[in-house]
Design goal:
By secondary structure, the chain is mostly helical. It has six helices and no strands. The protein is 58% helix and 0% strand. The chain is flat.
Length: 177
């Protein structure tokens, strides 16, 4: 909606009030001019200044030389690493995430055992142990759970699921929408 349409859509009382305020402002400005002259010193900074010329500013050759010298000085202060230092830093960086060598060894051993089992089931012969299990040292700080604690947790979970099954008995497993 344009300003004109917005202005016209206001009630007449509002427009009259705005006109009255505008006239009062003009009267006060005239009174100020009568007291202090055409531009009172207190309002000298308030009045709109002349617009700034648009376009590119020109910089003298001497100023450009000074700026270039200052920029070169700033860059020389920063130490620029050599390509060898950059390559060394890239090699030294540790990988984020990933898997530990112990974890990988456990997975490899378990996979070999699974394949040995599959091969013996297919051939029908007695299982042949191809590799000795890899013994991985325990990792410090890793918590282990006792068999009794696992049994308690399993029993509690079975109890919870039994309650859910009883609550859902008689209800269809899938809802057709």
């Amino acid at each position: 909606m344009s300003f004109r349409d917005n202005f016209i859509n206001h009630p007449i009382e509002t427009l009259e009030k705005a006109l009255h305020i505008r006239k009062r402002i003009d009267e006060l400005n005239e009174m100020l001019k009568g007291l202090f002259g055409p531009t009172p010193p207190s309002l000298a900074g308030v009045q709109s200044p002349s617009p700034q010329p648009k376009g590119k500013r020109t910089v003298s050759a001497a100023s450009r030389a000074k700026m270039a010298a200052a920029q070169k000085a700033r860059w020389s202060k920063k130490s620029v690493p050599s390509s060898k230092a950059i390559k060394a830093a890239q090699v030294v960086k540790p990988k984020k995430g990933g898997m530990s060598t112990e974890g990988r060894a456990r997975i490899i051993a378990a996979q070999k055992a699974r394949w040995a089992k599959v091969k013996t089931e297919k051939s029908g012969s007695a299982p042949v142990k191809t590799t000795a299990p890899v013994k991985v040292p325990a990792i410090k700080g890793r918590r282990t759970m006792s068999p009794e604690a696992r049994a308690k947790i399993a029993a509690a979970q079975k109890k919870r699921w039994a309650k859910v099954k009883i609550a859902n008995e008689g209800q269809p497993k899938f809802k057709i929408i």
